[in-house]
Every structure is written in C-alpha cells, then in structure tokens.
Amino acid sequence: MSNEETLFSKIVKGEIPADILFQDDRVTAFRDINPQAPTHILIIPNKIIPTVNDIGETDEALIGYMFIVARNLAKEEGIAEDGYRLLINCGSHGHQEVYHLHMHLVGGRPLGRMLKG
Ligand code: 5GP
Hints:
By secondary structure, the chain is an alpha+beta fold.
C-alpha cells in the first residue's frame, strides 16, 4: 500500500472540500465534481489503494463493504429500483485518472450500452 497522499485521501481527511454523502472509519463517498449523470458518486476506501491491481487479500471485506455502501447510497438517491451502474477504472487503458481506488455509482437516467467507440 502506498503512503503517499492522493487527491482523494485529502478529501477523506477534509483537507480538500467535497460533497460527502457518507463517511465512516473504512469508506468515504462523495459526489463527483464532473457528474456524468444525475447521480454520480465516488465510493473510496479511506486507506490508499492505488488501483484494483493493488488490492490485497486482507482487503476482501473492505472491497465487499464498498458495494454495501454503494447499494445504500443508490437507495438513498432513489435510483435503486430503476437501476444504475457501478464501475471501477484501472490503469491507463482503463482511463483511470486518480490513483486512489474508487467505485463510480452512476444513475438517474438510462445509461445505454457500457462501452462506446
Ligand atoms: P477515474 O477516471 O479515475 O475513474 O475517475 C476520476 C473521477 O474523479 C472523475 O470522474 C473526476 O470527475 C473525479 N474528480 C477529479 N477530481 C475531483 C475532485 O477534486 N473532487 C471530486 N469530487 N471529484 C473529482
């Protein structure tokens, strides 16, 4: 695990402002600054895991918990019934921009097919 600060670890610590919807000792969720749909939330582990490639065996519960948080937020946003998309970009081909693991929760409109172009 990297100990370097990331943009998102600064959000976890409150050093950079964000519209935080949920936070506990393991996970933080906040609205994406450049939303791609009416609901666009980022769910991140508080500890720095740069990419999916860096997830360790001991992170199993943490990663599962991110899905529980996503499910709860989808309900709170009122998009659970119509559905939504959870996605995680990894590395350069995955177009990952921030190297602090994050799950996108996107919904509030029909999202179309997953990949275009
Ligand atoms: P990625 O491409 O790495 O999967 O997604 C990074 C996401 O972080 C993008 O959707 C981008 O809009 C969002 N983002 C980048 N900087 C900030 C920021 O300072 N605050 C918030 N709330 N979101 C950010």
